[in-house]
Amino acid sequence: EKIKPRRYGSKVYVIKCFHENPATGFPLSPGRLPYELVQASGGHDLWSFGLTLYGSLVGSPLIAVDALNNLASGAQYASLHEWSEYGQHIAQVGGEAVKDPVAADFLRRLLHPDTYTSSTFIDRILEHPFFSPP
């Protein structure tokens, strides 16, 4: 159910998934995947942390989910797919929902789609005033 394709408008969205060979950690059939594998990075973890932190600070998720924590609809799949194109807007809107200006700035930085591609991003995050309360 979690990875079932979702339709939104004229497009259909699918969660990328594959079965790994436990011994190697590589896909069992990489040549048969209909998409390129995405190399996981610390940036993905920080982005996920930003979504989790947003939910903790605001009391609701930035991207709508159902009772089982699955994306609620095709619109949410489209939001994730298009994040790099309008993620800056979503990060800005999400930051505006947070009342503390330091936390809002921190969230905008975590959720911006291009920020964490820099090799110095983690250093800048750790130096953020969010981690140095007055």
What would you say about this model in short?
With 134 residues, the chain is mainly alpha-helical.
What's the alpha carbon Rg, rounded to whole Å? Answer: 17 Å
Structural class: mainly alpha
Number of strands: 2
**Mean pLDDT over all positions:** 75
Q: How far apart are the termini?
A: 46 Å
H-E order: EEHHHHH
Largest sheet: 2 strands, antiparallel
Task: Quickly count the helices.
Answer: 5
Q: How large is the share of residues in beta strands?
A: under 5%
Q: What's the shape?
A: globular
Helix content: 40-55%
Strand order across the biggest sheet? 1-2
Low-confidence stretches: none
Describe this protein's structure.
With about 130 residues, the chain is mainly α. About 45% of the residues lie in helices and about 5% in strands. Strands 1-2 form a two-stranded antiparallel sheet. Strand 1 (about 5-10) and strand 2 (about 10-15) form a beta hairpin. The protein starts with 5 loop residues before the first strand and ends in an 8-residue tail after the last helix.
Write the layout of secondary structure elements.
Elements: E1 6-8, E2 11-13, H1 42-58, H2 74-81, H3 83-97, H4 101-111, H5 121-126
Antiparallel strand pairs: 1-2
Protein traits:
134 residues; mainly alpha; 5 helices
